[in-house]
Amino acid sequence: MTATLIDGKAFAAGLRTRIGTAVAALKTQGITPGLAVVLVGEDPASEVYIRSKGRMTREVGMNSFEHRLPADTPQADLLALIDRLNADPAVNGILVQLPLPRHMDEAAVINAIDPAKDVDGFHILNVGRLATGQKAMVPCTPLGCLMLLRDQLGSLSGKNALVIGRSNIVGKPMAQLLLRDSATVTVAHSRTANLRDLCRQADIVVAAVGRARFVQGDWIKPGAVVIDVGINRTDDGLVGDVDFVSASQFAGAITPVPGGVGPMTIACLLANTLTATARANG
Ligand code: GUN
């Protein structure tokens, strides 16, 4: 079997077009959604993300506000900036780029963001709302994965889903979203025994472990849908957490790296900013 390629780049472009149309409609009412991005320090990977976030925010017609602070900024100064952004009616979404410098308390910073403007869905209130089935801001990468899965499979009800990775950013919220769609969810991680056997039973595999080509092709149940969240820099360039060449021989559908999940993350960030704007304006 040769897998269908899941074109996240095209899906994300379509989503951004729909967001652009909704933004244009809001503008006729005098409302322009605004997204504030805060970067502390000069992590080169974060710089790349922030530049493309800014560009795509402007492309859909939203206002993009960038705040760059030096790596040695006192945490109190960052909290003061977040307070100002919380109070600013032109700002509908706030994203503080992670990781933060080591002297900062990540949880304290995230939880200082107004939960209604928390477009990352990392605030403890949004995490709790998602876990208890209440209306929440949902983290962008797992939301993008869910959209691709629904597009491939329609209903996820009763499917065996294996999430590999237990991070707060991807693995845990991904598991919650799959549960919400009535999948049977297993969360595996670096200490899981018999991962290969678990994988062989999964109709859906979401790989978010951060290890290049970790998931082998012969672990994949024939016909399964494989979503690869990994972005690993290797001598061969960017590769995912799944061994794409061998997995394509078994999977029914699979996301490439790059061009799969990556573009969905920013599109979902814009979707969350639009949602936050709509909620703020009744
Ligand atoms: N760093 C890596 N991924 C993310 C993300 O989705 N949001 C934020 N804020 N920082 C990140």
From TrEMBL:
EC code(s) of this entry: 1.5.1.5, 3.5.4.9
Keywords: Amino-acid biosynthesis, Histidine biosynthesis, Hydrolase, Methionine biosynthesis, Multifunctional enzyme, NADP, One-carbon metabolism, Oxidoreductase, Purine biosynthesis
Pfam family, one: THF_DHG_CYH
GO molecular function: methenyltetrahydrofolate cyclohydrolase activity; methylenetetrahydrofolate dehydrogenase (NADP+) activity
Biochemical pathway: One-carbon metabolism; tetrahydrofolate interconversion
Binding-site positions, NADP(+): G165, R166, S167, I231
Catalysed reactions, as listed in the record: (6R)-5,10-methenyltetrahydrofolate + H2O = (6R)-10-formyltetrahydrofolate + H(+); (6R)-5,10-methylene-5,6,7,8-tetrahydrofolate + NADP(+) = (6R)-5,10-methenyltetrahydrofolate + NADPH
Residue span(s) of domain Tetrahydrofolate dehydrogenase/cyclohydrolase catalytic: 6-120
Subunit and partners: Homodimer.
Family: Belongs to the tetrahydrofolate dehydrogenase/cyclohydrolase family.
NCBIfam families (UniProt xref): PRK10792.1, PRK14186.1, PRK14188.1
Purpose of the protein: Catalyzes the oxidation of 5,10-methylenetetrahydrofolate to 5,10-methenyltetrahydrofolate and then the hydrolysis of 5,10-methenyltetrahydrofolate to 10-formyltetrahydrofolate.
Protein's UniProt name: Bifunctional protein FolD
Species: Paracoccus aerius
Gene it is expressed from: folD
